[in-house]
Amino acid sequence: MNRLIATFFYSGLIRPAPGTWGSLAALVVALPLYWIGGPWLVVAAIAVAYAAGHRAAEAEARDSGDHDPSHVVIDEAVGQWIALLPVLFGAARVGAPVLDLWPGWVAAFVLFRLFDITKPWIVGRFDRRGDTTGLMMDDVAAGFLAAIGVVLLAVVAHGVMMLGG
């Protein structure tokens, strides 16, 4: 069960770039979660995935002898869902079909991967902890930075649309 959770339904076993595959899998899973229960179900899934993921990642790290095994991508799922929250809450607020906000999905994915890979500021600080909390929290931080970026891009995009239309 630990491997299933830690690899986010085995998406972390896909090569190359398991973190990117885990992030894409998280987007796929976010959609039915949103359709079933709206953005608040995704928030609940974040909490459950973090708690279960921490335990599973710790077990996988112990078994592999590596504090951050590349196949562990539950942290990417958590961070990707956080990055997507502005899009999900925005769609729910205005009653728009969530897939009509596809530029936000793309921005959430790209920004999250950018922050997860480059590890700026607080993301890098968590990553350097070298423990399971750092493994999980660097992606949480990358998700929050990406979510802020998504909001800023939406403000710019909608401001431009309002000026032009």
Describe the structure.
- The protein is mainly alpha-helical and 165 residues long.
- It has helices at 2-6, 18-64, 74-94, 102-118, 121-127, 132-164.
- The chain has 6 helices and no strands.
- The N and C termini lie far apart (52 Å).
Number of helices: 6
**Which structural class do the helices and strands define?**
mainly alpha
Mean pLDDT: 95
Number of strands: 0
Strand content: under 5%
Give the structure's gist in a few sentences.
This protein has helices at residues 2-6, 18-64, 74-94, 102-118, 121-127, 132-164. By secondary structure, the chain is mostly helical. The longest helix has 47 residues, at 18-64.
Which SSEs are present, and which pair or pack?
Blueprint: H1 2-6, H2 18-64, H3 74-94, H4 102-118, H5 121-127, H6 132-164
Helix pairs in contact: 2-3, 2-6, 3-4, 3-6, 4-6, 5-6
Record keyword descriptors for this entry.
165 residues, mainly alpha, 79% helix
